[in-house]
Amino acid sequence: MSIWIDNRHPQLRAGQARLARHLNEMLQVLGHAGAWVDVSLVTDAEIKRLNRRYRQVNKVTDVLSFALSEAPGPRLPVEILGDIVISLDTAARQALAVRYQFAQVPEAKGYRITEEVLFLATHGLLHLLGHDHLEPAQAEAMEALERQFLAAITPLDVQALDRTEHSRITGRGTRAARGSAAARKSAAPP
After folding, report:
1. What is the pLDDT of residues 47-94, one digit of tens each?
2. What beta strand segments (E) does 43-134 contain?
3. CB neighbours of 99 closer than 8 A, spacing ≥ 6?
4. Residue 111 lies in a domain
5. Region class of 6: left (phi > 0), else alpha (psi between -120 and 50), else beta
């Protein structure tokens, strides 16, 4: 399998098999079938530490992406895209916020941490593939792809969730940061 998931959260869980299937389906549709992606499910404390270390932002965020394509070194025979790091604490809070915001929509009751993790992983994978949202046209294209892949997960427009606090933290509504997976892995404690 090309998707490796490491749940390092001591208490929270998300549907790992569903997450792996979703990311593999995305990779196939986007022309990267068989590419490798590591996904780490972590605490707020761990993602804050990573955000501070690699982005110099001393705040919790929901998802970080570390693209290996940005790292120096030889090309490998297997396409290794990089790492996606998701805070399960933040995902749980955001899933609750979605259920609250869409309380009048019956499908909102089924939106849980796994669905939010799927949303965040979708966003992170698109970053690993080079998509961004710094400019309005880029943001529109990336959000269209997110909607395409999220349609099978939920009928809710989860992008409509007010992520104002997150936008102030990461800038211009971003939900992911890009960096070098190789640099992060080589500097990570054993």
Report:
1. 999 999 999 999 999 999 999 876 667 777 788 899 999 999 999 999
2. 63-67, 80-87
3. 108, 109, 111
4. yes
5. beta
In this predicted structure, the answer to whether residue 186 has a pLDDT above a threshold of 80 is: no
Q: How far apart are CA 146 and CA 118, in angstroms?
A: 10
Angle at 13 between CA 43 and CA 17, to 5 degrees: 125
Q: How many CA atoms lie within 13 A of 95 on its CB side?
A: 22
Say how many domains are in the chain: 1
Provide the domain limits for residue 87: 3-181
Q: Residue holding tokens 């895209």?
A: 81
- Prediction pTM value: 0.83
Pair of tokens at residue 161? 């969730």
Instruction: Assign residue 68 the CATH number of its domain.
Output: 3.40.390.30
